[in-house]
Amino acid sequence: MRIDIITIFPGFFDTVLACSIVGRARRAGIVQIQCHDLRDYTTDAHRTVDDTPYGGGAGMVMKPEPFYRAVREVLGDEKAPVILLTPQGELFTQAKAMQLAAQERLVLLCGHYEGVDERVRQTVVTDEISIGDYVLTGGEPAAVVVIDAIVRLLPGATGNEQSPMDESFSTGLLEYPHYTRPSEFQGLKVPEVLLTGNHKQICRWRRRQALKRTLQRRPDLLGQAELTKEDHELLREIWQEMQDDRRGE
Ligand code: 6GU
Question: Is 7 in the pocket of ligand 1 (CB under 6 A)?
């Protein structure tokens, strides 16, 4: 896979995309990531990327020509999704990450200031993504989030082909609690069942914990999760337990 980032802060990405799983995937040739300085696609001596808004008002707007030229030059004759990172975009989800991970190429455009000239959307942008309902200073941190979520799904990136599909949001449930040594820490013991070696019981306990955690923290996810008849029975049990706990308080 190849990802091109078009940004006014190419240096922003230097360390963050050299570390951890993304850095290793790049060194292994699983993904090629290139940053392009938007100012290299300006034509004036001051390398201007923004200007005041038509109609007046506060702030600056990113000019259309540098983004247009950058995308044209970076893509050449190739076709690829061109994604604008903006708080106005579609909310980024695991499903979207999986969809993008199936592409051979992506171009990410990082917006700034009050926004980008609307004609950037009309000419080169194919998708718009927001990473959540809050406002960042620019699209760069969002681009890092999107790249991280995509790269870890690429075959060979994590070294554990099973794990990316087995976790929160892929199964539609939050993960069960994890424990490692020591078996007792600050007076807190690891749940007995995990020490038994009884895989069937462990599996059932973990499923129950995943269901409980999701019900407590993100009940909105349960509507779309893939649940068996047994899961529904467990959920009823957990719900009853939670009601009893509340009455006991
Ligand atoms: Cl993609 N950009 C900015 N500037 N703010 C955001 C965002 C993106 N997603 C959430 N907030």
Answer: no
Q: Which of 208, 225, 211, 212 is nearest to 169 (CA)?
A: 225
> Long-range contact list for 97-100, CB < 8 A, 24+ apart?
97/146, 97/149, 97/150, 97/153, 98/153, 100/146, 100/150
Strand pairing class (82-91; 105-110): parallel
CA pair distance 128, 205, nearest whole angstrom? 40
Which fold would CATH assign to domain 184-248? Trp Operon Repressor; Chain A (1.10.1270)
Indicate the domain borders of the chain. 2-151, 184-248
Superfamily of structural domain 2-151: SPOUT methyltransferase, trefoil knot domain (3.40.1280.10)
Distance separating alpha carbons of residues 212 and 234, to the nearest angstrom: 9
Q: Residue 241: its pLDDT value, please?
A: 95
**Which of 5, 12, 84, 86 maximizes ligand 1 atoms within 8 Å of its Cβ, making it the mutation to test the pocket?**
86
Q: What is the pLDDT of residue 163?
A: 56
Partners of residue 85 on adjacent β-strands: 110, 129
**C-beta 108 within 6 A of ligand 1:** no
Q: Which residues of the chain have pLDDT under 50?
A: none
Q: Give residue 171's pLDDT.
A: 80
What's the pTM? 0.94
Distance 139 CA to ligand 1 centre (A): 6
Looking at residue 162, what is its pLDDT? Answer: 60
Residue 249 is predicted with a pLDDT of 80
Dump pLDDT digits (tens) for 69-100.
Answer: 999 999 999 999 999 999 999 999 999 999 99
Confidence (pLDDT) at 224: 93
